[in-house]
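#struct-pred

JT: dropping the chains for the assembly here, can someone run the whole complex?
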Amino acid sequence: MRSLAALAAVLLAFAAHAAGPQASDPALDKRVAALTQDLRCLVCQNQTIADSQAPLAIDLKNQVIEKIKQGASDQEIVDYMVARYGDFVLYRPPLKATTLALWFGPAALFVLALFVLFRNLARRRRESPDAPLSEAERKRAEALLGKTEKESK
Amino acid sequence: MNRYLLPLGIFAVIAVFLAIGLGLDPREVPSPLIDKPAPAFSLPRLHQPAETFSHADMKGKVWLLNVWASWCVACREEHPVLVEFAKTGVIPVIGLNYKDERRDGLRWLAQFGDPYELSAFDYDGRIGIDYGVYGVPESFLIDKNGVIRYKRIGVITPEIIRDKIIPLVRQLNGNA
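RK: done, full complex below.
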């Protein structure tokens, strides 16, 4: 029983550690969670600040909490991060001249691929019409078929 | 003929893009701080805790701000290069001791040499955040008007000093 309690204590300690810095008030928690999920951790680049346990991510989380407590709006906090770390800190890159290819490139490629596909299909249909065989073609086909039949016997 | 040229062309385009991609370092994120005024700060010094150092103290000088920490492995690699560079006296090198214990920082400098005119002591890393620091060592070349002109994320090598920093310092000292 005592070992179970000890285990529970250890697990709790782990859970508390994994959660990182936390605010006590639920509304605040929600805003912090929403904001930090949109911000990239620059140390471990494919994680958000919310997911990451890197010291810098924890500092930035604390910074977000502090800013919210000071009454900053979400946009102000995002601007604060972008001013320091650049657009890269955003998980959703902003729509700008330099990011047009990023935003619309995949859709443009898809449209292009569809265009090529339909053009090829149309051409194939033109080249192999379902018209009946001409007399000469039929004779040739029969000759070929007859030949293979004889050979296989 | 066209049948072979088209896939070959596509292959060539992909190969070029991949080759460029291989040469890029994803850790090197373009800093939004280039050509912006260096964020203001005033911090206690590492050696003299009672005294403070402010970015404004360097006004009128081209200087290098080097972010370092005793716990930073790459800083040790960089350190001898900085010590050599500081000896040439081209520009003052100021250290920003980032998220470090004062005792550890002082011991580190005593052990490996101190290239810094002085080090500012950023215990909680707040100034580091203002400078967009995310991977120590980082270095900022700041001009006479306090504008950041160049940022190096990662270790400064003799090549970077020769090819980037010295020419830029020359240009900044000439123009201003």
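JT: nice. Helices of chain A lie at 2-19, 26-36, 55-69, 74-85, 100-127, 135-152. The two ends of chain A are 86 Å apart (CA to CA).
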